[in-house]
């Protein structure tokens, strides 16, 4: 369903509930008239204000005109003594008009701009969905590169000529092409022209050439190819560039936590943001926020300003008291975007106030911009600077959270500790530059091989922790053994010297431990047992090896 269809459905649902909503407001007004008090007046004002926001969002111009007048008059009474009879009668008239407005005319359509059809944010493809073509007429070279990339978990297809590649490309386009410039069926000029067209259509092109001279590189630059490698291309560098070019480091879309006491507004804004590729968790109660944060780690918070019991400013202050979200962007939604309100929300720790009548494309652009900043802040604070994996603190947090969830819902989580074998010798022999290549290669292999729901972190030095929630034991063991095996086949090159590195690992499953700390100790025990037994192997509890 398109966003426009979804919006039309939400509008119909809102219109269906609108008469009852108006009657609820009238009932509150009648109670207030009988017993005038500040608490009831605030409740009436809040409901009118919310209806104003909904009317603006769904294009109900007649209703909005009446509600604008009601809101203005009620706002003037909030900090004033009980009004005189003429003021009450004036409000009676407006509330009566609001009630009579139910069936008059059709609402004007909400503003849905043409720009909304083109999302300003495109979430990354799932890692395993990227397909790579290697076009290399030397069968041995092509086979070697194909084998190495497949060890990293890539989907790779090798072609001996450009013509056979085009047959497949026209049916199922590749995401990235590794292109040799000396092929039997196409000239260099024609290949550069083709590369230019591929890049225009978002298919990345990496040149693999035996020539690295200025003239050839200049031709490649003018063809807008993404990268240029002189043969033999170093596999670890090639993998890193592939990850960067295809933006494969992003595991998930930008995430937004939205809170509005009106379900219609939750549905509308959630649908709007999801149509642009964001992941949204919409809540209609402020009390649901803290439990939601146990499973959903947002890059951005959006709170309605006027909500019963807990308003948006109070909720923003509460979020700011959580260490993890002290720097996360918070936006506040309101139909009242006066300077006074803007100042109030900034003083409460929020970043900005957005009017509910903001044009959809502008609203989405602001949300994406701030969510990206929140993601970058959260990532820099939680990621290891070299590998991009979770740092020591955050992988422990993820592991503990997954363990607690598994215990609560009676599911399973695998916690694994991996260590690079003889890594000190790698550093001593090939220098820290060589050691860093190995660490990066393992990080890329993990990112490529595991699910988006899994967690990987650099525990310290050459030691890594993996957390695999809700995976059956035989499958987890097989998956991690496959990673270990693939890594042992990767060829590293430093100063012209080739070498390989192996891994040792210890696995533990949550049903083996009474406490989370017990799992850590047992995983470490298994890891050192793997080292003692000769390295390049996994050790699990005896019952799991049967």
UniProtKB/TrEMBL annotation:
EC number(s) reported in the record: 2.7.7.65
Keyword Cell membrane recorded: no
**Residue numbers carrying 4-aspartylphosphate:** 180, 304
- Reactions performed catalytically: 2 GTP = 3',3'-c-di-GMP + 2 diphosphate
**Chain positions found as Phosphohistidine:** 49
User: CDD domains annotated for this entry?
Assistant: GGDEF, REC
- An annotated Gene Ontology molecular function: diguanylate cyclase activity
InterPro entries per UniProt: CheY-like_superfamily, Diguanylate_Cyclase, GGDEF_dom, HPT_dom_sf, Nucleotide_cyclase, Rev_trsase/Diguanyl_cyclase, Sig_transdc_His_kin_Hpt_dom, Sig_transdc_resp-reg_receiver
Highest taxon, organism lineage: Bacteria
Q: Does the keyword Phosphoprotein apply?
A: yes
Q: Which SMART domains match?
A: GGDEF, REC
Residues in domain Response regulatory? 131-246, 255-371
Q: Name one Pfam family in it.
A: Hpt
Keywords of the record, alphabetical order, are: Nucleotidyltransferase, Phosphoprotein, Transferase, Two-component regulatory system
- According to the entry, every stretch annotated as the HPt domain falls at 3-102
- Please report the stretch or stretches of sequence annotated as the GGDEF domain: 411-543
Q: Which PANTHER family match?
A: DIGUANYLATE CYCLASE DGCM-RELATED, REGULATORY COMPONENTS OF SENSORY TRANSDUCTION SYSTEM
Query: What's the protein called, per UniProt?
Result: diguanylate cyclase
What is the source species? Shewanella scandinavica
């Amino acid at each position: 369903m398109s966003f426009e269809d979804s919006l039309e459905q939400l509008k119909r649902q809102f219109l269906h509930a609108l008469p009852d909503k108006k009657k609820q407001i009238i009932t509150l007004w009648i109670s207030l008239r009988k017993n005038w008090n500040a608490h009831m007046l605030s409740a009436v004002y809040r409901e009118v204000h919310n209806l104003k926001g909904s009317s603006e969002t769904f294009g109900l111009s007649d209703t909005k005109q009446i509600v604008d007048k009601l809101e203005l008059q009620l706002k003037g009474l909030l900090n004033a003594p009980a009004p005189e009879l003429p003021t009450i009668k004036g409000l009676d008239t407006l509330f009566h008009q609001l009630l009579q407005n139910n069936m008059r005319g059709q609402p004007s359509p909400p503003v849905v701009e043409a720009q909304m059809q083109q999302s300003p944010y495109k979430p990354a493809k799932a890692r395993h969905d990227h397909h790579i073509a290697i076009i290399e007429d030397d069968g041995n070279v092509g086979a070697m590169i194909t084998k190495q990339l497949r060890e990293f978990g890539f989907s790779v297809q090798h072609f001996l000529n450009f013509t056979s590649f085009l047959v497949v490309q026209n049916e199922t386009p590749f995401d990235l092409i590794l292109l040799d410039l000396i092929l039997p069926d196409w000239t260099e000029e024609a290949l550069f022209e083709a590369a230019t067209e591929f890049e225009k259509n978002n298919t990345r092109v990496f040149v693999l050439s035996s020539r690295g001279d200025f003239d050839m590189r200049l031709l490649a630059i003018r063809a807008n190819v993404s990268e240029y490698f002189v043969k033999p291309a170093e596999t670890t560098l090639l993998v890193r560039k592939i990850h960067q070019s295809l933006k494969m480091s992003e595991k998930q879309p930008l995430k937004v936590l939205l809170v509005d006491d009106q379900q219609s507004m939750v549905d509308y804004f959630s649908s709007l943001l999801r149509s642009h590729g964001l992941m949204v968790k919409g809540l209609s109660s402020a009390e649901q926020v803290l439990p939601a944060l146990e499973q959903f780690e947002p890059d951005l918070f959006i709170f309605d300003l006027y909500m019963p019991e807990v308003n948006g400013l109070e909720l923003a202050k509460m979020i700011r008291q959580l260490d993890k979200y002290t720097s996360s962007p918070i936006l506040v939604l309101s139909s009242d975007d006066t300077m006074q309100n803007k100042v109030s929300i900034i003083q409460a720790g929020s970043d900005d106030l957005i009017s509910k009548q903001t044009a959809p494309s502008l609203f989405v652009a602001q949300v994406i911009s701030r969510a990206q900043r929140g993601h970058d802040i959260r990532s820099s604070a939680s990621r290891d600077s070299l590998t991009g994996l979770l740092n020591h603190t955050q992988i422990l947090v993820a592991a503990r959270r997954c363990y607690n969830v598994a215990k609560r819902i009676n599911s399973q989580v695998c916690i694994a500790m991996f260590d690079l074998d003889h890594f000190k010798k790698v550093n001593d022999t090939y220098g820290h530059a060589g050691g860093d290549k190995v660490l990066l290669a393992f990080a890329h292999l993990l990112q490529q091989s595991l699910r988006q729901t899994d967690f990987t972190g650099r525990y310290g030095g050459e030691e890594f922790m993996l957390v695999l929630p809700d995976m059956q034991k035989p499958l987890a063991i097989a998956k991690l053994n496959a990673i270990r095996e693939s890594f042992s086949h990767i060829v590293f090159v430093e100063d012209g010297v080739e070498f390989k590195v192996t891994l040792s690992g210890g696995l533990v499953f949550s049903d083996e431990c009474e406490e989370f700390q017990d799992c850590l100790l047992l995983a470490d025990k298994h890891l050192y047992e793997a080292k003692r037994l000769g390295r390049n192997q996994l050790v699990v509890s005896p019952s799991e090896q049967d």
